[in-house]
User: Fold these one by one.
Assistant:
Number 1:
Amino acid sequence: MRGRCSRKLGLLAKAGFLLWLLWLGYLLLERVSFPMSSSTDEDEEESNLQARQLAIEESGIDGLLAKPVVIKPLADDNAPGEWGRATHLNLSPEEKKHEEETVERYAINIYVSDKISLHRHIKDHRMNECRTKRFNYRHLPTTSVIIAFYNEAWSTLLRTIHSVLESTPAILLKEIILIDDFSDRAYLKSQLAEYISNLERVRLIRTNKREGLVRARLIGATYATGDVLTFLDCHCECVPGWIEPLLERIAENASTIVCPVIDTIDWNTFEFYMQTDEPMIGGFDWRLTFQWHSVPEAERERRKSRIEPIRSPTMAGGLFAVSKAFFEYLGTYDMGMEVWGGENLELSFRVWQCGGSLEIHPCSHVGHVFPKKAPYARPNFLQNTVRAAEVWMGSYKQHFYNRNPPARKVGHSKTKKKKRNCKYL
Ligand SMILES: *[C@@H]1O[C@H](CO)[C@@H](O)[C@H](O)[C@H]1NC(C)=O
């Protein structure tokens, strides 16, 4: 009796194990075959197959959901600037003169930029943990990428746009919103409009007078349909994997503004320097100019691993992601801020005093061309910082005025109405 029973049990167990195996096989098959059957466009399928196959091999099933809006063409190892290398050209005196003119005009070596592919690859030197991290793509919020520009050079602007399309998973990118802040260069008119009309998910909005960076960005934000607003400058290159950490962090806590690590792209050679050490955090001096600092010991101890986001008092400026709802709750940017300068500190002070936090994510990397000098003046910097000091610094504003006597003479226009939920100094 006993023997028969245990034999029966053994059989049952075997059958159960077989069923489980079959189920597992079915699940795997279904997941692997899903993307193949879902695509209908055969031409696209053809050209993407190779790159996609690569992506699948590299990143397993996650790779399918990580598929960018547009697949980057394969790298040409010999092309100038490929993999983020420096470009040095042998120029004739005439070409040299042309090169110098572009530097004079843009404060960036556009002659070199024009020689580099708009689709170049950047070598991924991020920490191992960043490169192997998996994301739950179906549960990340979507984003609208907002890029304002004024008289930007063609190749740097277009490289920014292509790099977003080629390094942002299609499932996460709602759209790119370009805001032309009343540029007057001819190539930014119909030529740009036509080029953009051939790109998927890119919208071009034009202001009908010069608004300045801050208001141009806010105008762009009003068109955004994504859950998260991601602001970029108009001469950037995103490193694949840049958006996921930002969106994951905002999914975890929607009152966080998250910045990528800003890598330097050399204005002269376009060499991409990826910052591989611990990122720096933002601070400020009493004149309210932005400063970089190393991460304090207490913050280092608070974090459980080196890929956790780092809290930062301030942000450098142009590059950050924020939940659309939280940005609106915060009262967005101060609309009274003219052109640029100071708005980054104002927003930083605001987020910390209104229940949010500001962080830098070590796994998110975006390259930025820092021009040789500021391409256009910041006549409103003093006025903007006075506004920031008056609203957010409480009695500490005395330090600002003491360090910055000319600020006393600047009247500040009507400042933003204070919000009830903020703790003012
Ligand atoms: C989100 O972040 C804010 C600011 O750091 C914090 O006060 C709040 O407790 C966090 N919320 C959650 C759910 O962790």
Note: Confidence is low (pLDDT under 50) at residues 30-42.
Number 2:
Amino acid sequence: MNGLVAADLVVTGTGTPAGPGWVEFAGGRVTGTGTGNPPREPDRLAAVVVPGFVDVHCHGGGGASFGAAPDASARAAAFHAAHGSTTVLASLVTRSPDDLAGAVRALGPLVDDGVVAGVHLEGPWLAASRCGAHDPGLLRDPDPAEIDPLLRTGTIAMVTLAPELPGGLDAISRVAASGAVAAVGHTAAGYDLTRRALDAGARAGTHLFNAMGPVHHRDPGPVAALLADPRTVVELITDGVHVHPALWDIVGRAAADRVAAVTDAMAAAGMPDGGYRLGDLDVQVTDGVARLPDGTIAGSTATADVLFRNVIAAHPGSRPEALDRAVAWTSTTPAALLGREDIGRLQPGSRADVVLLDADLGIETVLRAGVVVPPGGPASG
Ligand SMILES: [Zn+2]
């Protein structure tokens, strides 16, 4: 719980330029940070130190899915924690009303214990034409009779929905009023309707570009509306599969501090190629890419440390600039989206969530609230 970490490069996420420095913590909280030589002999040394990653879109990993089985949900959280995600939302894909309510109920104690930071409902209120790897037969219109009891559990941190559905804008208002993040996604909405969704309280775009209309110069679509709105955080799956890296920098320039890298990982993350399940659908993983039988990409097999390295590798600028962007995308911005001031940066009072990396940016040690996270399976990708 107590300790002192020193590194050649410390990136705090607070605006302090990356450089040699240290982080001290006690009782699971950061008690001090500084540049240059540490005030005493450090307990741990690393090449690079960054805040723990915050993944707001994650369905599972290490062979386990978030859902009705608490032990599987805990395994998925532990797998991602070992890869640096000291905070994850448990994302649930479209399920039947009973299955969805059951999964939310089962995840409640894990939210209370801080194993996961909340539940992200991705569906069932999604556009059939943009359903991706969601069972189209289980999609439905948002109905307060289903939404309100789910929101009242207090475990819902985020809801992805399509605003064009009947009741969609009202549902966004309800989600926002509950304190959860309403996110526009899996949607056939155009530019104007997306703007109305943001005015109704939506504050995020779920996996920008994926499962929404493209940018067209006479029909700019949801992507342009989300990028242009200074209130809005856009998720970006920087696994190198979902969105071409050429677009990452364009997004980064358009929405500087408003990008959250997300894994959208499913159970196969960290596991060999083969057959897996995502919700009620069969998924085949080949060369680390998860697809439905019809070829639709079905989530990722990435972990947050992979996203982090990818963002740095694709950055056209200097190493310190790349590190700043990667920390913003993987920690600071998603933490801010969740309204969490205690995570996402290394500053006095923050939870001591610290990722120690080697010179190649591979995970050396992960501390969560100052405690070493047991190592997990191999990173994929
Ligand atoms: Zn999705």
Note: Residues 319-337 form the longest helix (19 residues).
